[in-house]
Automatic annotation (TrEMBL):
SUPFAM superfamilies, A to Z: PP2C-like
Gene source species: Neobacillus driksii
Protein name as annotated: Protein phosphatase 2C domain-containing protein
Domain PPM-type phosphatase stretches: 30-235
Length: 276
């Protein structure tokens, strides 16, 4: 295999809330994107809940020395560690806006000529097949969350639930607070936040190694406003993660767009690996 990785904090941040894992001992690779907290909290090292969540997941998967359980089981184990860390710092986990949370995209290249994958949120896994077809293996559940949240509020009002008028949610803070309450719900989005219900929303599956030429794992900071996720894959494959990221950051700067932390892993499977 040839593995290329990239990891960079957004220009306005001193520390990235993303993390990546390259566990070559057991061929587990992943990217994690901590959700920027809505409530102020910093630990004794000055780190917020987003950084802590993504790095708890990174440390868990990096520490594995054998893949004797599934990626789904691994996500749930890391999710329990996340909950325990919040308990340590006396975080009120009844309020969703207090929760530390992270999106995730993880793969395990297994000995049985299979590639397992698991995903939460808007971290994405894209595959190039031997046929040349480029296809996302996962779905971005964060996309259009504000639209779905508004539709859900309208439905609640029809049911007689007393919630504020839409003008109230024109305030970005109140909108985000409501969105966070939709974590791991059918009309919401998926995320690891210490809650057990995440188990029901993990996207996971397997593909045959023989079918795959290249795999790309990215956080949403590498999404390009002009390109589909498949087009972004092609651009990254052509220029490499570092050059693509620099070009995207310059595009964001020229167009006054918000720049996010950027992390990615591109794995090219050589002929020898595919023929095992």
């Amino acid at each position: 295999m040839k593995v290329e990785s990239f990891f960079s904090a957004a220009p306005h941040k001193s520390v990235s809330e993303d993390s990546i894992v390259l566990n070559e001992k057991i061929n587990v690779y992943g990217v994690f994107d901590g959700a920027t907290p809505l409530m102020p909290f910093k630990d004794e090292n000055g780190m917020n809940g987003a950084y802590l969540a993504s790095n708890i997941f990174k440390d868990y998967f990096l520490g594995l020395y054998r893949s004797n359980h599934s990626l789904v089981e691994g996500i749930m184990a890391a999710n329990r560690m996340l909950r325990e860390h919040m308990e340590k710092y006396n975080i009120n986990q009844e309020k969703y806006e207090n929760l530390w949370s992270t999106c995730a995209a993880i793969i395990n290249i297994e000995e049985e000529e299979k590639i397992s994958y698991a995903q939460l949120g808007d971290c994405m896994i894209i595959a190039e097949y031997q046929t040349g077809t480029v296809k996302a293996l996962t779905r971005d559940t964060v996309k259009d969350i504000s639209y779905r949240a508004k539709a859900y509020r309208e439905e609640l009002r029809k049911q007689g639930v007393n919630i504020p008028d839409e003008e109230y949610y024109h305030d970005r803070t109140y909108q985000l607070l409501f969105n966070r309450s939709l974590a791991n719900m059918e009309h919401g989005y998926t995320v690891a936040n210490g809650k057990e219900e995440v188990l029901n929303f993990i996207q996971h599956g397997q593909v045959n190694i023989s079918e795959i030429k290249t795999l790309l794992l990215i956080t949403d900071g590498l999404f390009h406003p002009k390109y589909s996720i498949e087009e972004a894959f092609t651009k990254i494959q052509t220029s490499g993660l570092h050059a693509y990221s620099n070009e995207l950051e310059q595009y964001e700067k020229r167009n006054n767009l918000r720049s996010d932390d950027k992390s990615g892993i591109m794995i090219s499977l050589c002929d020898e690996e595919r023929s095992k």
